[in-house]
Amino acid sequence: MADSAASITSLLDESVFSKARLSRDPRFDGRFFVAVKTTGIFCRPICPARLPLEENVTYYQYATQARKEAVRHFAGLFLDGNNPSHEAILAIKGVGHWTLDYLKMRGERNPDIYLNGDLIVRKMAAQYPIEPDKAAPWRSYLTLQLWQLSNQQKEL
Question: What residues contact residue 57 under an 8 Å CB cut-off, 6+ apart?
Answer without folding.
Answer: 1, 21, 34, 35, 36, 37
